[in-house]
Amino acid sequence: MKTKHFNMLLTALLSILLASCSKWLDEPEPEATVPIEEIGSGTGGLDAAMTGAWAYWTFNSGITGNIFIYPEALGDYVVGTNVVSSTNRVFRAYQRQLNSEGYDMIGETLQRASRAENLTNYVIKSIRESPPTDLAWATNGNRLTGEAYFLRAWIHFEYLKMEGDQWITKTPGANATGRGPLLRFKPQLTLDDLPQARTPLAAAYDSIIADLKKAEQLIPEAYNSGIHDASFQARASRAAASALLAKVYWQQNDFANALVHIEKAIGTTPGTSLFPLATNFDQIYKRGGLTNTTNTNTKSEVILEYVAVSPSKVYTLAGLQMDNAWTRGTTTALPVNWFYFGDYFKNLTSFDLTKDKRYLELINRTYSRTANGKTYTGWSSKKFNVALNLVFIRSAELILMRAEINARRNQLQAGLDDLNMIRVRAGLAALTIIDISTQTALVNEIVRERVRELFAEGYRSHELKRLGSLTDGQPDEVFFLPGDRESIDFGIDGLGGPGPVKWNNRGLVWNITNDEMAVNPLANNN
Predict the structure, then answer these.
(1) pLDDT tens digits, 262-275
(2) Is pLDDT at 22 greater than 70 in this prediction?
(3) Lowest pLDDT segment from 98-107, 124-133, 335-344
C-alpha cells in the first residue's frame, strides 16, 4: 500500500498518534502524523485506529460535552446565567442564534468528530480492500468491521440531528429532498477527497440505518478477554447497536421498526428488561471505570457509556464541558455552572417533591449564582461528575420509548406496564387504567415522564422536533417555547425573539461551518 500522510492544516484529515499498533491510545496527539500502512497492516493496527476514533469522538467538546449540552440549551427548560455578557459558544444555542459567522459550537465539535469519522472511514476502506491476514483477524474481523460501522453511524446520526431537518412524519415523501447533513463515506487522504455535497435527509437516514444493521450483525454480544483487544471492553456491544438503531427509527417516528430493535436490546415483554433498571441512581451516575457490567454478559441498566479509565480514558477531562454546563461549584473549585432549571421546568416535570427520588437525589434545589450584579436561583442537575463515567444509552430510555409506542398503538396496559417500571424505581406508586384511561392522557404522561427521567442528558430539542413532526398543524402542536428566557437573552438576532418557534424552523439547524465551506466547493448552506 502506498504511503500517504495526513495534512494537519485541514481539520477533517486523519491525525492521531499510534504509540503502538497493538496498544490502545492514552490520549490523542493532533500534531502527529502516521503513514496509512501503519494502521492497516494488521488487526492490531485497526484496533488502534478504532481506539483513536473513539478518542476523538469522546473528547470533551464532542459527544461527552457539546453534543450532550446543545440539545438542552436549544430546548425550552433551561435558564442561562450571564448570557448577554458572555461570548461562550454554548450560549449561541441558548439564544437560538445558530447561523453565526464565527467559530461556533458545531465548529468546535467537528474539529475532533470529523477526525473520528475519518478514522472509521479508513478502517472500513482498509477492511473492504485489503483485510489483514494475521491470526487475530479470524476472531476479530467481524468485531472490528462492526465497530467501524457502529461508530460511523453514531457520528453521522449526531451530524444529522445537528445539520439536517427533522424527519417529516405526515408527508414522508418530502424527506427524499429534505436538507440533510454533510456526511463522508470515504477517508480524506488528499485535497481531492474534500469536495462532498450534503446527503439528502432520507438518504442520510438510510445510510445510518444500513451501517447500524451491519453493526448489529457483526459486533459481539460482550467482551471476551481471550479473544478481543482490551480496548473493546469499553466500547459498544451488539445491544448498543440495536439500541442506537431504535433511537434512529424513533427520531423518524417509525414506531414499528423502533420497537423491533428496542425488543432486540431489552426484550419483548412490557414491564421487564434484559438490562435491569438500577436500584439506585449512584449505579448510573457514579459509575467509575470498568464495572462488571461494562460490555459483559452481566447486564445492568447501562447499555453504552464512556468509561473514565484505560483502556478508553483518552482525555483526562472528558467531562469538562458537562461540568461547565451543569455542576461547576460541586465537582471543581472553578466558577459555577452555565445552566439551571427555572419555573418552566418545575411546572413541566411536576415532580412529587416528597417521593420522587429523581427530584430528591438528582436535583440541587438551592442553586444560586450572582454574576454582573444579578442573582440567579432555581434548580440544577446533579447527574454528572467530571471524573466518572458518562452514560450514553440506558434501558430506562428504551423502556419509555416502548411505553409511548404501545400507548400510540392504543395498547394502554402494555404502555402502563413500562411506564410503571420507571415510576416505581423513582419511588412513586404504579398507575392503573382507572388513573389514566385514555390514549391521549397516557401518551402525554409518558412524554412528561421522559422529561423527569432524561433531563440534562442531551435529548430535549431532538424530542421537541420529533413531537412537533407528529403534531404538525394540530391544535396541540409542539413548539420551541422560550421557557424562562428573558427577551434580552435572545440578543438582536435570536430566532423568534421571546415567542414560540415552529419545530421545523430552519433557524434551529446548524450551518455548515465557514471553514468547511472554504475548502469544499460542493457544500451548500441554509
Answers:
(1) 999 999 999 999 99
(2) no
(3) 98-107
117/11 Cα distance (integer angstroms) = 12
Cα–Cα distance, 11 to 106 (Å, whole number)? 13
DSSP 42: S
β-pairing, 363-371 with 374-381? Answer: antiparallel
Each residue of 453-463: b (16+ CB within 10 Å) or e? bbbbbbbbbbb
| Secondary structure (H, E, C), 22-73 | CCCCCCCCCCCCCCHHHHHCCHHHHHHHHHHHHHHHCCCCCCCCHHHHHHHH
Grid cell locating 349? 416535570
Rg (CA), the chain: 22
For residue 18, what pLDDT band results from cuts at 50, 70 and 90? Answer: very low
Q: What is the mean pLDDT of residues 99-109?
A: 75
pTM of the model: 0.92
Distance CA 13, CA 342 (A): 42
Whole-angstrom Cα distance, residue 27 to residue 52?
A: 8
Identify the three-state secondary structure at position 370: strand
Specify the long-range contacts of residues 356-365, CB closer than 8 Å, at least 24 apart: 356/426, 356/427, 356/428, 356/452, 357/281, 357/425, 357/426, 357/427, 358/281, 358/426, 358/452, 358/453, 360/427, 361/281, 362/281, 362/285, 364/330
Q: Are 347 and 290 spatial neighbours (Cβ–Cβ below 8 Å)?
A: no
Indicate the pLDDT class of residue 170, thresholds 50, 70 and 90.
very high
**Which residue in 96, 88, 54, 104 sits closest to 71, CA to CA?**
96
CA separation for the pair 480, 483 (Å, rounded):
9
One-letter amino acid at 154 equals W
Angle of helix 43-57 relative to helix 105-129, nearest 10 degrees? Answer: 170
Whether the per-residue pLDDT at 140 is higher than 80: the answer is: yes
